[in-house]
Amino acid sequence: MSCTREQGGVAPSPSQRLIAATLRGTLKSLLSPAFQARAPVALQRRWLATVARATLPARGVPRHQTRFAGVPVEVVGEGPAATLLYLHGGGYVAGSPATHRAITTRLARALDATVMVVDYRLAPEHPSPAALDDVVAVYRALLDHGHRPERMAVAGDSAGGGLSLAFLQHVRDGGELPPPAAGVLLSPWLDLTLTQTPRRVPGEAMLSHDWLAFAANAYAGERRQRPEVSPLAGDLNGLPPLLIQCGGDEILGPDSERLATALEQADTEARYQLFADRWHVFQMHGGVLADADRALAHITDFLGARFQAGQREPRP
């Protein structure tokens, strides 16, 4: 198998160019101050939560909080068609289910699915492997509650994208749990060593190399090269089909490029979609930015096809 590369977006209209410029400027002025290495973690978390309120969740999608295996989870949607395990971004030090509802509510509605957003423990209070342990515990509990793995997928953005890949590698290597049908990685952070992460990217709207170094240290300390922390260093063979999406103007872009290149030599089916002139996790702007809506539609089509294939395959 190989990794198929695609251009995810299309040439924007004049109105979309204006919208994109406004969104980029807003992120630089409002969100980038939250991602500063010198800012206290508590302030980073509050700031991100406040700015996230400006995004637009899909209307009419129910949600409630519960626990699986003792781990807090926000259940988004009530669709019976599938179950999506979603892992939010925030550099392992910030973020929550509440900050990513613009994505999770839209996926729940488009897929007619129930989205389980894991409120995993954050660093520095809870360094690695706390986050991965929480995700595995929730997945195991979902299976115990009768959720069928062929009708399940995992998705995540930024740190949550890296955590999603680490989770899939963990499930494969453990041999105890059946894997989900697919994985979706949005602007994933895959290499916490930062050895191939550029110091600056002209179009980057929110992240900085210094903040990434702070977050990596908080989460993994001096052991950032471990595959469970930097899954790009792990074995990429034998994983469920993957969809990777990345913007062309982000500091973590090389992580997605390197993953796509490595997957060309692996036996894992993968698609890599690059959206030119788009920033980190631009999918958060669904309902406003056309490329965000296109990206979410691609995710819906990709997962829908995998769920249908799982429905056709005989169960062992």
Automatic annotation (TrEMBL):
Highest taxon of source: Bacteria
PROSITE patterns, per database record: LIPASE_GDXG_HIS
UniProt entry keywords in alphabetical sequence: Hydrolase
InterPro entries referenced in this protein's UniProt entry, alphabetically: AB_hydrolase_3 (IPR013094), AB_hydrolase_fold (IPR029058), GDXG_lipolytic_enzyme (IPR050300), Lipase_GDXG_HIS_AS (IPR002168)
Presence of keyword Membrane: no
A single MF term (Gene Ontology): hydrolase activity
Gene3D superfamilies: alpha/beta hydrolase
Domain Alpha/beta hydrolase fold-3: 84-283
Protein family (similarity comment): Belongs to the 'GDXG' lipolytic enzyme family.
Protein name, UniProt field: Alpha/beta hydrolase
Organism of provenance: Alloalcanivorax gelatiniphagus
